[in-house]
Amino acid sequence: MTHPIIEDLHRRYTVKQYDSTKRISQADMDVILEALRLSASSINSQPWKFVVLESDEAKQRFADSFVNKHLFNQHHATEASHTILLAYDPYFTQDKFRKRVDAEVSSGHLPAEMYDNFMGAYAFAESNTDENGYNGHWTKAQVYLALGNLMHVLARLGIASTPMEGVDTETLNDVFAAELDGHVCEVAIAMGYHKDGDDWNHGLPKARLAQSDIIDVI
Ligand SMILES: Cc1cc2nc3c(=O)[nH]c(=O)nc-3n(C[C@H](O)[C@H](O)[C@H](O)COP(=O)(O)O)c2cc1C
Each residue of 201-212: pLDDT tens digit? Predict the structure, then answer.
């Protein structure tokens, strides 16, 4: 018998056509958003912002942001139950890191007397920061961890999804500038339930390289 984790990962796939009548329950949304919050990141930096598009108005704004690029993804904006914009902080400063270290102490995870030691971990961010203070390559990598975590959680919940780098980044970041609050969105994920009989990607076998191609156990 296959392990349930492997079964879930075989079942999850990228939806190409949503059933626009089906909605994710509030109970499942609660799990999804808390799982996002619990995502791990280097030095617990959490250099991200997630914007959840739930209202018809927000979904329409997302649909309207597809102007020049990747229009093949546009229909998911209004047909999926929800979409989450995942955005990274391109200028993750030491001062912003302080808020995370405050949480380390207030949560009980870090003894107060270790505060300055933990602040020293910012060196990891610093070594990924250029002379203009830009560290978006590093913070974007953290955002993809949250995306991977989210995709796995959705698989376990039996909720279908479409990760999308195919967004019109320029207009998207303009349209949601207020909500993104200085963060940059280059990937989004639509979530919901596939349309029976209308989703050509549903029920197909997984197309992955063999373990022997990509894994060396030494
Ligand atoms: C970061 C990322 C970006 C993706 N962008 C798109 C996209 O814009 N549109 C789309 O239809 N699929 C997109 N995909 C889906 C991939 O093509 C898909 O995950 C891959 O072919 C494996 O298939 P599966 O997800 O069905 O297992 C993306 C996947 C990832 C992980």
Answer: 999 999 999 999
